[in-house]
Design a protein that fits this description.
The complex is a heterodimer of chains A (327) and B (271).
Chain A (H helix, E strand, L loop, with lengths): L1 H20 L5 H39 L2 H4 L3 E2 L4 E2 L2 H32 L2 H16 L2 H28 L14 H26 L2 H9 L4 H11 L1 H17 L2 H6 L17 H8 L6 H39 L1
Antiparallel strand pairs in A: 1-2
Helix pairs in contact in A: 2-13, 4-7, 4-10, 5-7, 7-10, 7-13, 8-9, 10-13, 12-13
Chain B lengths: L1 H35 L4 H5 L12 H32 L3 H15 L2 H16 L4 H25 L3 H9 L4 H29 L26 H9 L4 H29 L4
The chains are: A mainly alpha (327), B mainly alpha (271).
Chain lengths: 327, 271
Amino acid sequence: MNQITNANSQRKNAGQWRFALSPTGNAGDGIFRGLMFAAALLILVIVVVMIVALAAKSTLSIQRFGFGFLTSREWDPVKGQFGALPFIYGTVVSSAIAVLIAVPLSLGIAVFLVEQAPSYLARPITFMVELLAAIPSVVYGLWGIFVLAPFLRVHVEPRLGSWLGWLPLFRGSITGIGLLTGGIMLAIMVTPIITAVVRDVLEAVPNSQREAALALGATKWETTRVVLVNGVPGIAGAVMLGLGRALGETMAVTMVIGNRAEISASLFAPSYTIASAIANEFTEATGDIYLSSLVELGLILFLVTFAVNGLARVLVWNVTRRSGAAA
Amino acid sequence: MRRLTNLAMTTFTALCTLFAILVLVIILGYIAWKGIGSVSLRFLLDSPRPVGEGGGIGNAILGSLVLLLLSSVFGMPIGISVGVYLSEFGKGTFASLVRFFVDTLTGIPSIVTGVFVYAIIVVPLKHFSAFAGGVALSLIMIPIVARTTEEMIKLVPQSLREGALALGAPQWRVTLGIVIPAAASGIATGAMLAVARVSGETAPLLFTAFGSRFFNYHLDQPIASLTVQIYNYAISPYNEWHAQAWAATLVLMTLILGINVVVRFLTRKKF
């Protein structure tokens, strides 16, 4: 009796295994499913190999400098001393400037497109904002060098210096090339990304919320506030997405930030980001420890953007999934 | 007071929008204005020459096309397959994991992709190559294509699949013969947008395809690209090269905007 059940369950197991590959029992189905599965598996393999390869190439510098790599201010290829703090500082500050400028701007645009503009206006404007995202980084950089940086040098930075010069942030010599320019450049670049996601989030807020607010006598803006409060987790996700993009943006920043591995309190001073250090020095890196340090910078950037993007996705997914269920 | 706040905020959102449009117009206008003067047939066909002798971007245009072709050959089949997997078989933990990784892969800085390809292809082969550049670009292309393919295939009505299955077709033939053709135009526009996105990439090419001042027809040699050329000319100290950078940008932007406008036109009726 027992043996029969055993044999039966074995046959059933084998059947299940085959069923998993090809539920219809058709050989073509099994092959096709296998191929598609292999492609999907490749995605996981790529990510894992990426981490392993970057870690392997940076072992030399990880072993030599340890955690000191993150806290040392000295980046001196001649002496073989490598510390990432100036790059981390430049990356964090330029991204912070970008987010500070881009968030209100993107919220304004998204609210305008979803809550206020009639559809004959909203459609072409949406397309134009999307085009802003389609402009390549290197083109922003070219424009930054020859248009934005001179404009800031002549019109904006002297004024900031005279009005807010009592803050150490706005002191120092004015060149138009530096942290502030890099941050503004990034703000322009991440605005279309944040706008697009916030727009989706606002559109996912059910209309009953708006109707309820309007019915209670709220003005258009008060209604919008209700909608915004509803979308807070999604908006947070959108900001994280923009931040992830700003942290890793390379070419445009490299071209306007000045590329000097120094930490200065002034936003006018030249600085350096992780991404631009890799872009600038990678092909010139002589010596294993120099190259290994640059790869370690890449590994740090990978892990940070991976975490930021992952968090952003979770936040945005929750919002859109909820609205999907409601609709 | 409430009305005043309302008015103020409405004005604020409109100004934000106006600002974004203004930035777009200024950037595009500048490229057209600065670029148009240096574009000529000779410029489009010639390869770079030393300062003062003119020269052009013919090899860079060819190089960009080669890189785009290579990356499409590597990236499209994989990207579309992943999209098909996610939409047709994509239930359960594994699929969610893949979806999550695809999304985060989209957000990985392209410079990191460049470092990665340098480590796994350039170092073992011991020199920069068009091949490495193509792989780097395809890694950026795959997640974009995968996501748009998934979205597009999900739009295909379930009744179409059920009808074909009811007629006795095996599932693989339903997917390949019915579902994918039904979503083909959507998948194609997604693919075009991915090409447009990748054609503007510079960072992953710096130490994979590297760049070249000559026409190159060998995939195992360094190859020029429009974006790297623009970068090198932009940071050079010569006015003549700056002018050429603007002209090359005009060519690149014509390609990218062209694709975007065509896609917009094709998808206008559906959405």
